[in-house]
Amino acid sequence: TTTPRIGDILQKLAPFLKMYGEYVKNFDNAMELVKTWTERSPQFKFIIQDIQKEKVCGNLTLQHHMLEPVQRIPRYEMLLKDYLRKLPQDSLDWKDAEKSLEIISTAASHSNSAIRKTENLKKLLEIYEMLGEEEDIVNPSNELIKEGQILKLAARNTSAQERYLFL
After folding, report:
1. What are the extents of the domains in the chain?
2. Beta carbons of 47 and 57 less than 8 angstroms apart
């Protein structure tokens, strides 16, 4: 009550939020695994259902609880922006809150970047399988820019041939 501040506290904790990028990167696979094992194993399904009935779970499914960390960083970012809008600029917490927002925004960018990289590699793997696994294109430095139907014009007789292009 004597020094109502949160910016200084968040500033100290914000660097740890970057680790959420790893969680976010593996989120889709984790959700798919839960779905697969729930369908495949009656024992697993019953255990999950029993746990979800616990009062501490608040009537939410495991998938809802798994989604919480994915939403946490954007939520912190949104709350800090709102806090700064309502905080007087001469407040003792202004600079710390501003610095916290900067760090949390970086963590949010880091998570979004991890998601994009994972999606890109997943798409490259799909293309690799479509091409008969002959050309090894799955590499973190490769990026799919565009794909789609094109018409190739033959030089000799100007006939058009349909092709599917991956750029």
Report:
1. 6-142
2. no
> In this structure, are residues 128 and 40 in contact, taking their beta carbons and an 8 Å threshold?
no
Give 2-46 pLDDT, tens digit per residue: 777 888 888 888 778 777 877 887 888 888 899 899 999 999 999
The two tokens of residue 167 are 């750029």
Strands (E), the chain: 147-153, 160-166
- Residues 158-164 have a mean pLDDT of 84
Instruction: Answer whether 124's CB lies under 8 Å from 140's CB.
Output: no
Q: Which helix (DSSP H) or strand (DSSP E) does residue 99 occupy?
A: helix 94-130
pTM of the model: 0.60
Domain 6-142 has CATH 3.30.70.270: no
Residue type, 135: E
What is the rounded average pLDDT for all residues in the chain? 84
The DSSP secondary-structure symbol of 1 reads: -
